[in-house]
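Handout, page 2. Input:
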Amino acid sequence: MVELIDTHCHLTFEPLADDVAGVVDRSRDAGVSGWITVGTSIEDSRRVVALAEQYEGMYASVGVHPHDARLVDEAMLAELETVARAGKVVAIGETGLDYHYNFSTPDEQKQVFAAHLELAARLDLPVVIHSREAFDDTMAILDRASALKGVVFHCFGGTAEQAHLVLERGCFVSFTGVVTFKNAQKAREAAKVVPLDRLMVETDCPYMSPEPVRRQKPNEPALMTHTAGFLAALKGRNPEDFARETTRTAETFFSLEPSD
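Output:
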């Protein structure tokens, strides 16, 4: 069986945090044997690093979510850099812009996003991008950034045209269970244009369980096989080839040891 990698999960979030060992066991049984667990605050970033140290195949990405950009100061950014230097940290983020809720102002978000990009360039780590209703500003900030090792737009919610723009800039695109939803035609059209060497699969768990288990709460990595199978069919590939190629993409992007 070809193993999949969940490239964006939140295993420190409740209720998954109460049963990580069970989540990991069920994940492995389903054929998902790698996880990038993602921090959304300094405290959470410390937790994802500690959790990754406990499990083979688990790695951490560290950052402060754009919702909390208003809380970030120079001392916090210095602390984030310290956390980011831990051994199993493979990316910076999630970071970016979210204009849907504007829990932090656009200016606050832009400043903190740019600071994350500077950190990623300094540490030679790829970046995990959260961009919601802020595509143009996200791209403009990326265009002004120093050379980055890699960029992935997680939980991509843009159009096929926007996917083309992302790809033209050398970025990667990751899809969640949203692509399986009946009303997610835009996401499916975007997925069609992304080649497998730029495409990754994620849960963003505990959120967004895919069809046909959409009503199962919480989402967890074991359920990612539904999303992967759906995307394989959408791309006209058999599931094993799809898993093999997207796993290779994730291993390349995050600089992971290749699976057997």
